[in-house]
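Appendix B.2, paired examples.
Example (i):
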Amino acid sequence: MGSTTGGGNASDPDRVGETFEAFVGMLTSGVPADHPALLECCEFLELSPDSEQARRLITGMGYDVDYRELRACDYGAPTIRKRFFMVMRRDGKPIVWPEATHGDPKSPAVISGKLAPWRTAAECIDWSIPAPSIFDRKNVSGREYAEADRAAASNALLSRARRRLS
């Protein structure tokens, strides 16, 4: 469900986020009956545009909606990847987001003990398990090289990290 121009595949920069905003509108207070995203949502949900369920999307489903992009490292996961979260409520209670539990080891919050330092991938690796290095293998080429690299790429990083930590 993305905004495109003329039915093609190229995104229209002026319409970026339009479908998402309409989706949030359908969950909250509704969207205009002629909104282009309504037909996309009906198609995706396998609803007839003339159905009662589609009318509920037009009038809105009455949810309180909040969404955020959170970094997993701020909550104790050993990765800096960002994740999208959406919370929806219809019970009148407030949406409450968790407080970060981890932070930059150099930050005042970590230094003062308010937050734990970010975890690292190195904490999760069992360095006692031997792994072959791609630097020690004979040269291969073509497809065989690509497959060998895919299989060994993470081992190369591990080997380098091991050497640095030793």
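Example (ii):
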Amino acid sequence: MEKTVFEPDFLICPAGGLISGRKDFTMAKYTSSQLQKSINATIEELASLIDEAQFSQEIEVYLETVAKFHHYSIHNQLLIKDTFPKASHVAGFCTWRDQFNRTVKKGERGIPILAPIRVKDQSPDEDEEPTYKVFFKVVYVFDISQTEGDEIPALDVWKSPEYKPELQKILINYAESLGLTVDYQEIGAAQGALTSENKILLNLTAGTKTLVHEIAHHLAEHFESKKPHEQRELEAEATAYAVCRHFGFEDLKSPNYLYLTGLTTDDLKASLTTISTLAQQIINQIEERIS
């Protein structure tokens, strides 16, 4: 059976210069030691930005926004994913209307979940502590894609949508040389996924960094790894950050992504050797295809 690793969707819950859009872009040449030094400096930059992220207004607004969404039980999470696999952020009709100034689109069908109801037992002795029985009834929620109204930009603080077409082509070529296939499709809130069948799935809104992230997962053999999920995510995301910074990306949200995943600067530094090795490998392969 094919297995898929999706990036967290929070549902429940100084580098060179790639000139985008030009086929004749040029890159500054680095020796191996210079490149490693540059990558390590970028990782140090990322470490300091993770520390800053927890105090940023951007993260504060994000957490305030997410807090408005109900935290669903594991059972209801499974029901949501089974009924509406692409769901990312779900809420009831009134919550969308009152908390977010959004309305459910005409003709949309709700996603059924179970809501508990407490019913007080009838006791003949009024002095006794009341007891309750719990029953469940079906209620309906709706995914954000089923609604329209005010935008909710705070939900995207962990995404890096910057896209450089020429670099994307080179990365796809590199991925294919590794035996991977790259496919674009709607996969919910996740920006990318790597399957056990050597497929990289990219959301239609995914930026170039996401492709680097999934390639890093493959190179690090994370499917076979016994490392904790958080460490695997850290290695892939930090590698993608280092590679993309090397090629001139600016507004990367990796610090927010790693902070929201629960990772710290100490975690980052503990994996520095792995991240540096992966980043150097990917950068060298890209530059070989540029020259």
